[in-house]
Specification:
The structure holds two protein chains of two kinds.
Chain A (H helix, E strand, L loop, with lengths): L18 H8 L7 H13 L3 H21 L4 E5 L9 H8 L4 E6 L2 H11 L5 E5 L5 H5 L2 H6 L7 E4 L12 H11 L5 E7 L8 H8 L11 H6 L5 E2 L5 E2 L16 E7 L2
Chain B lengths: L13 H15 L6 H20 L6 H12 L5 H15 L10 H60 L3 E6 L4 E4 L1 H6 L12 H4 L1 E2 L5 H9 L5 E9 L5 E12 L5 E10 L1 H15 L9 H14 L5 E9 L2 H8 L1 H18 L4 E8 L2 E7 L7 H13 L2 E3 L2 E3 L3 E9 L5 H18 L4 E3 L2 H23 L3 E9 L4 E10 L5 H11 L1 H17 L5 E5 L2 H5 L3 H12 L6 E6 H5 L5 H10 L3 E5 L5 H9 L4 E4 L8 H16 L3 E4 L5 H9 L4 E2 L8
Parallel strand pairs in B: 12-13, 15-16, 16-17, 17-18, 18-19, 19-20, 20-21
Antiparallel strand pairs in B: 1-2, 1-6, 3-4, 4-5, 5-6, 7-9, 7-12, 8-9, 10-11, 14-15, 14-21
Helix pairs in contact in B: 1-2, 1-4, 2-5, 3-5, 4-5, 11-12, 12-13, 15-16, 17-19
The chains are: A alpha/beta, B alpha/beta.
Amino acid sequence: MSQQTNWVPTSVDLEKASAARMYDYVLGGNHNFAVDRALAEELLKIQPEVKRFVIQNRAFMRRAVLFLVEQGIRQFLDLGSGIPTVGNVHEIAQAVDPTSRVVYVDNEHVAVAHSQLLLENNTTTAMVHADITKPNLVLNDDTTRRVLDFDQPIGLLAITIGHYILPEHDPDGVFATYRDALAPGSYLALTHLTDDFAEDTSEEIIEKLKKSQNTVMSRTKSEIRSFFGDFELVEPGLVGTSQWRPERDADNDNDGLYAGVARKR
Amino acid sequence: MPDPRVTAPPVHRREQLARAWTRSTTAATYIPRSPDDIEGVLLELVDEVLASLGADEFSSAAGNRIGARLVSEGFVDPHALAATINVLSHELLADLVSTPDTELARRTVALLGAMSAGYADGLRDYTLTQQEDVKQALFNAVLRAEHNLRGIENRFHEVFTSSATGIAITDLSGMCIEANPALAGILATVPDRLPGRMLADIFRDEGAGDVMSSYHRLLDGEQARVHEQRRLRKEDGEIAWVLLAISLLRDGAGAPAYFVTMVQDVTELHLLQDRLGHQLLYDALTGLPNRQCFHTKLESMLERADPRSPITLCCVNLDAFALVNNSFGHAVGDRLLQTVGRRLEEAVSDENALVARIAGDEFAVLIEDSATTPDIGDLIGKLTAELVDPEYIDGIGVAVGASVGAVRRNAGDGDAIALFRAADTALRKAKRTGRRQWAGFHEGEDRTALELDRLAASLPAAWEVGDLSVDFTPVVRLADRKPVGARAVLSWDAVDHVTCLQLAERTGWSVHVGPLLLLEACKRFAGSEGVLSVQLTRNQSGDADLVRAVHRALEESGLTADRLELSLDVGALLDDFGDARDNLEVLDDIGVRVGLCGVTGGPLDFELVSSTGVRSVTLSGALGAGSKVLADETARTVRMFDELGAACSVLDVRTAETADWWASIGVATAQGGVFGGS
């Protein structure tokens, strides 16, 4: 269990909705509060598709993790892992190979507390309480270093996290620092909110989310592409979440998020 | 025998049913499994549904089980239940064409009802379990936050007490609540004395500023942070220079609550800055203002003085100070400089005067003249008289003379630079005329000097554009007045050859341009008959590169060495200036005719001619003019050189009579206006 690395801890704020808890709510979890549910319902009213986006995003994560396991990846660093609702990375990966190692990183107290509860006595999986926009704190955390071997390939997961990194936090620098820390053969899998498919609802959603603890910003395909740096995108490239290696014929509906997986040479 | 109204459940469509069920539920809820996996589970449930509906004895208990199973398989979203009921009721009853009041319909409805109940129970348990988790997690999170908070407090306390920076926490009225030991140290008090006191009392500003004004600016939101430097009075009365960094702390609700003031003691830094500033303006050895400081003070004095009030500026240069340094060592030299500084100050102690050390061995004395200020001669006499007494340093009596240049004028007549220049010109003149001398400044000289400086500075440009070039003036044998060669001279419209050379010497440019002139002269003369004469300046004579330049000039022009006569400056040779003596020897060795110029006919000149290979001596035409005594002396000199084997040549012969006279005393060659040329 990691020590809080911030000088001053963020407190458990039950008066403002949190992205992690709203996400949990939309996925049918109960680790949320009235304020989270109320804001999530407001969002669903503006864009009923949000629920489908969330489900597709979660389903992408499962396919991506399984894909990485197939490629031989046995270590995962899950940035902004959120509340362990259902189908968490370690469950997916360890179902295939029980020796798979996973480090979750989140800054939301409830998410951290839950994950720690869930992971008690689990030696191959750990929770790090840190702000993912401070990559050096994450990468040099004792727990991170204990669980993951950075000389071996790692699957870096940035699922629905990039859009919380606002320009003032230097998203390009944040991603570059994570990428640089990885050994050759590592992968980066990410999903990111975009307006590219939108029917003008994102702006309203973004406006609503300003009430929460987590302000978001959507980005274009090329902006999101740049987060992969010189990593090589695997087929089918950067696409809508449901279009990425679907298990059954994907419906052609658009998603609110881009998804992609890329490999470090 | 079943009731005829019973329609059999659609067993043949079991797979289609499972597929439709899968599609509708996975759209409504996320199950972290592959679609095939989910469909497998739902197919099992379809079979159970079908079995239950087709059983001889119907019981809805299966519905409860299936509902609970759905929850445990992860279909926890109520929308999944809605989707389930929608799909099942539609698919199970699809075969009923008309009368819905069949046993199958009755059973289906009962089953779905039971399924809903079972689902609701399962979901309640699921939710309660999760809520337990939530409570536990929240409790843990709060515990940890409190734990962290304690850690933070400890850390803060450690920083607070061990910091080298003074820290004060005050409330909004400016009352100190807590102060750390470093702050107490800076203010020369004990930490416990500070809480309860007001900021204005703690930070007693020596400047005019009100300490609290910065705090008010923060409170008004004009600034987020304040950084400022202040001069504080410490408890013990001493002054401390401090840097203050003030910021506002807010409470949980964002309202202003406290001020935090960080205090850094920069007193030592300040003293150091002062000292550096002093060193920049004052000479460390004598404590007198340095040149820069003197200049600034002179400027400001000229500005504020009545333009009609007279001022006097003296530049004092020590004669042979280098000799003192070399003979007695620098320590003695330094002591002497201190003495000179002190004595100069004493000499003008009755005046409104400023003494400065403006260069290594040069001092300046500025006097705002009053009714009792002595005239300039007496003033300088007073200064030199002060310096004349020897100073006994470590038992050694040391005294140096000084040359003084002085200028007296009205404050409104010209700026500081002009005044300095005038005094400096007077000083150079004093130096030229001899040591332990002084010279006043004459306006006309200054203008001439300025003009010469300007010309000297424009020489290189004149050479570049071709305004300045080499010309030749014929040299004749006095015996028969036949031309025997030519002398190379500089030709420039602005000034004559001699002045031109003096200017070139003044800037040092002569050394640079010498080889070029030589080459140019040799090239142009090579096709002519006779000997080419070139006179060298002092600097050119001592130039280490002279021999190489001669070699090159001969080589490139094709002129043979014996057709080149180079006259070296006799002063340079006597002073052993630079490589002058070596140059003479080597040039002689390679066959160049070496001569002397600038000769006056002193015994040393004769000695030089007798001990070297000098073959000719160039005399100034001026030596022939004037008194009979001088004429006799000149004749004797020529005879003497002749006996020593050096042929004499004379410059600037203007009339036939003088030419005859020079011939009569045995001078071999001559040049000048009477023979054409300059």
